C-alpha cells in the first residue's frame, strides 16, 4: 500500500485550485478514487466541475460563493458557517472511509480556516487521523504555519502580475 501524503498549495497567485485539479486528473487517469470538496465556491458556472464529474470525480461544493464577501460576513453567520463546516469534516471522514477514496482535495480550506469558518484544530486532527493511503491536498491563500508544518509538500504560488489588476474580469473557460 502506498503512503498518502499531505500537500498544501498556498499564496496569492493564480493556480492553486488548478494545480489540485491537475492532481485529480492524474489520479483518475491511474484509476484512483477522488473526492473534491470546495469550501468557498458554488457549482454554478464553474467549467471544471462538470468535466471532473464526467471523469468520475465526486465534487461537493459547500460554499455559497462566499469568496468575494468574506470580510462582510456578520458574526452570527460566521458562527453558523463555522459550526456547519467544522462538523462537515466528520461527514467527509465518514465518506472517505466508506468509499475508499485515494485523493481528497479540500479546496480553499486554508482561506476558510484563516477567516474562522473552520476550526483549524479539528482540521489538524482530521489530517492526523487520515487513512494511511489517503493523499490530501489543501488549497487556498493564508495557509497557517501549523498546516505548513503538518504537510509533506508545500507550494507557494506567488502573483507577479494578474489581469484583475488592470480591471480585466474573470473569463469563462479560462478563470472559471
How would you describe the overall organization of this protein?
It is a single chain. The protein is α/β, with parallel strands linked by helices. It is built from six helices and six strands. The chain has helices at residues 16-29, 47-54, 75-99, 109-114, 120-128, 145-150; strands spanning 6-10, 34-38, 58-61, 103-107, 135-139, 153-156. The longest helix is centred in the middle third of the chain and has 25 residues, at 75-99. A six-stranded parallel β-sheet has the order 3-2-4-5-1-6. α2 links the parallel β2 (34-38) and β3 (58-61).
Features:
Rossmann fold; alpha/beta; six-stranded parallel beta sheet; 6 strands; 176 residues; 6 helices
The spatial strand order of the largest sheet comes to 3-2-4-5-1-6
What is the CATH superfamily label? P-loop containing nucleotide triphosphate hydrolases
Count of discrete domains: 1
The low-confidence parts are: none
For this structure, the CATH topology is Rossmann fold
Distance between the termini: 36 Å
Described by strand count, sense and barrel closure, the largest sheet is: 6 strands, parallel
In short:
The protein is of the alpha/beta class and 176 residues long. 39% of the residues lie in helices and 16% in strands.
